[in-house]
């Protein structure tokens, strides 16, 4: 167990809803924000206050899909019928989640902006309180649709009224429930069975526990948070807004660590991507999935990178790179497409109008222009002439091409795979090479050059109809 | 005639001016906003309250150019000398426009933000009024340059004073004339001849009708609108602003309909483009002219599309597509250029570093890489090897290439047109094919591969000067 | 000397610091803003009030690097030990800078937004004043970190207190020192030796001269400026902000001059670039270094241009252009890469998937697709077929290819350099041309096309394991 983790904190993440207003069959919590499913943002926040074995996710709609997106060590609880947030928490408690003495934090699964530090603050505050719950609230200019916080004359919280159940005076209240709570575990277990479905939605509201706990233990704690940090995503438009906010946060953290991002508003970096300090990211760049950018690398403008690594000091621009490893000090682009399984060693070059797939390029080897290399293994210090192609597909199957060290492949060489070209070998420009080439030899496939004199004059006559 | 159209409404669009401050020889109303000429935005708004035969456009500067941009059914009236807005409307009335009893709506041709719903509101309001005119106004922080609305003590509009004719007290007024009016047709005809040119501009102001109508009929109606909806474009900077506003409106409407636009601020969609719900548009994408995107298609990043359609479920990225039809589930790019007359059927592929022109690609056929196909007809399930080219230009004329079904064109095949390659035929890699190929046959043009041993050693010696 | 220059004004630019908070080994003043090193922005501002021989730059950290970025006519003064701004100015005065009667303006080297007009205003104001100094101030919401302006009851400036030396009352002052001063030269020389290092930083503060000059000559002048114009760059984040501001200023000035920039927020134009009125710049375009865009040219979307010129009426899109000259009415792209030394004449074309290097393309000549031309000289009205390549590298050295006028190079022609193809000559598609071609002749290197019947049937059998 990590030292700075509070073992007595349990986090329950509510992730059972479909999110009908998202206009999508994908469970709401699986929509991604900065490339990470929303429910995983909640898990990452939870991990800042507890260990995986103290994190429980209540799943329901497309439960298996949601489970598949979660880390192995996290507990899931199935809420087959969606009878409200109170019901969801009850199911978790019934399943033994938060069984000890400590604090139970409940968070929505659709609030990616929520910092772990806010959960820590709530949990700490609750741990030091004699009351049963400490909740997060926010003040909104337009509180419409949110549960309102009811306070008494002395300013103490006495309960929450859902929008649909509020009277006119309550509708004027601008302080709303952010739906994040830290409960005393034992107290929560005592009241959870008392909540009912006697309300507009006919659901078990978790919010009802607040007044129950106040009646039982007095003093409800409340922390007023920044609305930007705590409000959930309920529509495609809100998803787009939160995505922008979180991408800005990812970019800001990278910049603070020493990464140069020329124009953050035009740079899309997934939360899952590692970028070392000293890297420079130009605009119109997408870094996605399990990707890595080394120190001093220059990436962009106009790069799409997916599940790939870029070595220190490499330069990649105007290119698409997928499931590949670009070595240190390698140049890629402008206008290259690296497909799955491309690996380059130090100082290699994949230049302009070059596509590669399942190809290994050794130290200092270059494919400068207009080539396709597929299923190829190229040694060190070799040069592939412009217009060269591995004919790796025989119409039925793919075959390999092996090119040695210090090879000079002439321009427009067709390499009909399976093929092996030995170290120090050469091929003649315009040759179709279908038999292996011995080390040090020149292989050439060519006829004699012939000249037909006065061809132009005759063509002109013909074109003139003579 | 469409059911929900009010036949008694006539709309006069004022589009005669050059727009000197635009610093361009193009008539101001032909500058485009979200890809549509400004005057056509006015026509589209007018179409929401009446039929084309009740829409008249007053043209003057470069009248023929403006006429050419208008739908056939719309009336145009020539204002040869530009003697003011009152003069323009008078010419239209004299030509018989708005001859009946109904309402005459007058709108500027340079106000693309103006919703048809605003025109409808004005016309309805006027139709129910006993007065002679209902006008649109706006309240501005800086009213400088605009005609001011003069109201009496009871708040009723009594007239309009142009900026150049206003006294100091009038210059303090922040409510301005938005230059959009709904007139009682008969009343307008009665007063239009009474307006004169006794003012700072020495022009016939349409605004003078307002006080004349008040004197004749009392009660001038006024609706205060959003300044953002009604102020005209008078400079390149304002054009850029309005263009941004209208593009945002186009994007918002698409998003509300179920289209996903990843970053609306980086997506340029003309108002003329249809995008089906379920399509996803990535940044740096331009969709222009008469274009269509089908449901589930993924377009972008970095796509320039002009007068083209993308079928349902297709993916197009890092590509330029002009006057082409991309079929359903077709893959295009990264890095492809589809020129005029490219048509693909379902499940086709135009891959990386591929250019096509006037080429038809059958169901499931693929041109994966580094190829140019021009004036070609390719059947179903055929594969074009990397580096293949249709030599469609003989130096004088273009010729066609016909490739059958299930053809395997080897890499780097030159197809010298006119040429026909039969069904199930193959070509050898690196072959120049200048004669037709029989169905099922392999055509090859190649010499024997020779090997010159120890070539590298000799070259090294030579390079070393030995 | 230029007429509107005031010879009695001397400008001292302070550029000795490393700028530790920039987290970079590059001297702070060499970080670029809109492509121009910050210290050169200060020099350009200074040039609006004086001539180069009256501009002195105090250098220190990496002095040689900073000197190399400065124009030849500007004086530099070395501050080996960085003992404060007062010390820097003292060294300059000791070296004879500002020796005459006039005004000495002191500006920081890290304030690129500072307009020359502000320096002119300060210098004029000081020249007409009986006091010893006129300074620029700014009012900040958060003055933290800045020297505060101390005024007496009548509002006159009496001195400046650095943040680290301020008491609680002084810390509340929001008016801060913008670190830009116009001194009476003689008065400054009189007091510069009196400032000491008795302060929190143990440095000689230039700010101390203010109270000394007030004591000596009374009345300190102060102009309150816009904070946005005068605050320095002290972190990568501030650099990014100022860079955005200055790029916006560059774009605004171009637009005001008649250049159309479709989306200024997505267009990166260095201050060093000239763009003629009537040019149109599309988004995602980078214009860098010593570059020029002619009237009527259309550049972008997605163009990276470095040290290159684009002729009037040319169109360049989706391309990278470096150290090249694109002629008038030339088409480039989509998807072209022009490398160092590419020059095109009027009406030429470098099309799609074409790379060029050190290549001259004559009037009306075209390289439409999929070609690499390196070290080539191509005459007028010639056409290079798709897939053609100059094999300019023999494995050891680069060689030239010379192509005449009206040449028709067939598709997929390999031109093995050194090579000369005469005027009006042709080459056959798919030929490797390694010997010179006579004018008007057709050169071809090709075998006979053979056909192997029923190949497909046999391949199918084999694939089926029969």
What does this structure look like?
Three copies of one chain form a homotrimer. By secondary structure, chain A is of the alpha/beta class. In chain A, 20% of the residues lie in helices and 31% in strands. Chain A has two domains: 9-230, Spore Coat Polysaccharide Biosynthesis Protein SpsA, Chain A (Alpha-Beta Complex); 236-443, Hexapeptide repeat proteins (UDP N-Acetylglucosamine Acyltransferase, domain 1). Chain A contains ten helices and 40 strands. In chain A, strands 12, 13, 15, 16, 18, 19, 21, 22, 24, 25, 27 and 29 form a twelve-stranded parallel sheet that branches. Chain A has a seven-stranded mixed sheet with strand order 5-4-1-6-10-7-11, with helices on both faces. In chain A, a hairpin with a 5-residue loop joins strand 8 (148-151) and strand 9 (157-161). Chain A is elongated and about 105 Å long. The termini of chain A are far apart. Chains in contact: A-B, A-C, B-C. Chains A and B meet through helix 9, strand 29, strand 38 and strand 39 of A and strand 12, strand 38 and helix 10 of B.
Concise overview:
The first copy, chain A, is an alpha/beta fold.
Classify the fold: give the CATH topology of the largest domain in chain A. Answer: Spore Coat Polysaccharide Biosynthesis Protein SpsA, Chain A
Major sheet description of chain A: 12 strands, parallel
Q: Describe the global form of chain A.
A: elongated
The N- to C-terminal Cα distance of chain A equals 92 Å
**Alpha carbon gyration radius of chain A:** 31 Å
Mean pLDDT of chain A comes to 93
CATH superfamily of the largest domain in chain A: Spore Coat Polysaccharide Biosynthesis Protein SpsA, Chain A
Total of DSSP H or I helical runs spanning 4+ residues of chain A: 10
Strand residue percentage of chain A: 25-35%
- Return residue spans of chain A where pLDDT drops below 50 for at least 5 consecutive residues: 1-6
Q: How many domains would you count in the coordinates of chain A?
A: 2
What's the architecture of the largest domain in chain A in CATH terms?
A: Alpha-Beta Complex
